[in-house]
Amino acid sequence: KVTIKGIERELICPACKELFTHPLILPCQHNVCHKCVKEILFAFEDSFADGGSESSNQSSPRIKISSSSMDRIDRISRTGIKRNSLTPRSSLFPCPGCQRDIDLGERGINGLFRNFTLETIVERYRQAARAAIAIMCDFCKPPPQESTKSCMDCSASYCNECFKIHHPWGTVKAQHEYVGPTTNFRPKILMCPEHEMERVNMYCEICRRPVCHLCKLGGCHANHRVTTMSTAYKTLKEKLSKDIEYLISKEGQVKAHITQLDLLLKEIECNSERAKEEASQSFEKLSHVLEEKKSAALRAIETSKNLRLEKLQMQVEEYQGLLENNGLVGYAQEVLKETDPSCFVQTAKQLHVRIQKATESLKTFRPAAETTFEDFVVDIAKQEEILGDLTFQSNGIKIPEINEEQSRMYDKALISWECPGKTDSADIYVLEYHKLNREEESTTWQEIEVCSKSKVISDLDVDSSYIFRVRGYKGSICSPWSREVILHTPPAPVFSFLFDDKCGYNSEHLLLNPGRTSVESRAGFPLLLGSERMQVGCYTTLDYIIADTGIAKGKHFWAFHVEAYSYLVKVGVVSSNKIQKLFHNTHDVTSPRYEQDSGHDSGSEDAFFDSSQPFTLVTLGMKKFFIPTTPAAPKDPASRILPLPSCLGICLDCDKGKVGFFDAGRMKCLYECEVDCSGIMYPAFALMGSAAIHLEESVTAKYGEYHDDI
């Protein structure tokens, strides 16, 4: 039996830090109060209007936008989504629980499900918290009696007598569902937020949410895999029960971990105090050295000052003696009064020398000491730089390096990095990035704090280049920035699809994985049987497979991997008008220089690409990419053969009628041609011999925090 008070932590809204009130399920599977979601959206709207200033984001006393969310405002505001004045204009905001950007779509809050299960648990918690306060009957005459049951259909509470009166035996009301006394009345049927009059009866495996039959028939879940609600209920309940049983069976291990963590908490407290004391002593020593240096410098300045003052004072006294009736001049005036020639000559000889020196000093006046103390300016530039880099004496933080092989750009950006050595020397990392724009002189770096060694970034512009760098932090210590890495986004929005296992699919020759994301062609007896006429020409059939979703307009991009052992693979697009012709094309000539009816070498390798073909495909195989023969293609056959990229991408522009083939790793176009887009265009693939194709997984599906594999 679960103790209600023991799960209080799970019942607190991450936004308002209070018990949930009408919780809504966000796309990231976190729960937030209905009122909190609206207040967050309005708070972001106010931030947009005021230029994203932090001082203007406190539109609600319950909701505070964290500083880590403010750097998203400029990027989110670029979407330009507008709504009517009665609802928040923005439908993008960071989840208070995981800080991932949440897009509510066109329906906004109305497209979110209300979590009635969580609401019921919160109500049970509230009842346990106020067990002494009884729920009174809603129909008793004063004074009301304590209720004994609540009717979920009437949304009211009753005592025994009133329940019998309002639910008489033999009437329709007698069939109403009743529970114990409660104030939480939820609807008996969960309705679809997209189609308000329809109840949900299916579960979308792609979006991981309940849907109705209209969502599957013509809504946004038309091409998604769905299962019945009962199957999803059974599967999820079995998995959840199994996981809970496993955790309960490990209760002893959990308690041991808790004990170990408690000891670590105490050890951290002791070690931190010791570290503080040692750091304080180090800075006191440094301060003592600085005080000694300061005292020595001040003493030197004081000594120089006294010496200069003494010299200047003596010079002042000498010049005062040159004044009339003063000093030397006064003495000379008295000597001139002497009338005895012999006595006058005896005294005037020495006096005249002194007068001459005084006269010379007047002509070449120079102060006896300098007034400036430029020689006593302390140069602390180097010391200041050293003190700025002052860190704790430890092994230091290794400079992280972005792993370009594990990092990739697709529907979102996945940035991964590593640190030299086996152990992680940093507690947290800061990832910075900005769009590469040659015209802008100054750039503003977007900053994200990450606790792991990878980060998924969304809302990047298509057909753009971004610069990424990362550094590690351990307390107040930080490492230098890593080497900057430039990654390129796809030339168009990513188009998601699965292989079609119905239209033209040859199950005898092709093998699909359960998720329909990989297809494999095995070279077996069918290929050998198709090669009976080897002596007169090799005629074997290419096995075609197309996507389960088509493209009617716009520009789209998708990527895939071709196994290195693949002998022959063709990839491209096919129009819905020519699909039947594609699958009924009985023979594909594996030797392009041979024509069945001519009986001789046709030289077709030198012929231009036939635009009348029912498809636009390029040939891959034996780790090579073959550029089709066109007027613009190089005449030298060897120059038309390129190394096969590890990941190949296709960009279809229906509006311009062009299809391009890309090295998806570098987002570099290898070949582009015109294509007829008059019908609905489908990604098409063909395999022969031993070959395999794997669709590129979306970053969201592969690296999302929530994953469900039912």
From TrEMBL:
In which organism is this protein found?
Baryphthengus martii (Rufous motmot)
Q: Known InterPro entries for this protein?
A: B30.2/SPRY, B30.2/SPRY_sf, Bbox_C, ConA-like_dom_sf, COS_domain, E3_ligase_FN3/SPRY, FN3_dom, FN3_sf
Residue ranges annotated for the B30.2/SPRY domain, each copy included: 477-708
Superkingdom assignment: Eukaryota
Which one Pfam family would you cite for this protein?
zf-B_box
Q: Which residues form the B box-type domain?
A: 187-229
Q: Which family does it belong to?
A: Belongs to the TRIM/RBCC family.
Taken from the UniProt entry, a GO cellular component term is: microtubule
Q: Does the keyword Transmembrane apply?
A: no
Q: Kindly provide the name given to this protein in its UniProt entry.
A: TRI36 ligase
Entry coiled-coil feature ranges:
258-285
**Which coarse location class describes where this protein primarily resides?**
cytoplasm
Domain (Fibronectin type-III) ranges: 399-492
User: GO molecular function of the protein, one example?
Assistant: ubiquitin-protein transferase activity
Localization per Swiss-Prot or TrEMBL:
Cytoplasm, Cytoskeleton
Q: Which UniProt keywords apply?
A: Coiled coil, Cytoplasm, Cytoskeleton, Ligase, Metal-binding, Microtubule, Repeat, Transferase, Ubl conjugation pathway, Zinc, Zinc-finger
- Example of a GO biological process term: acrosome reaction
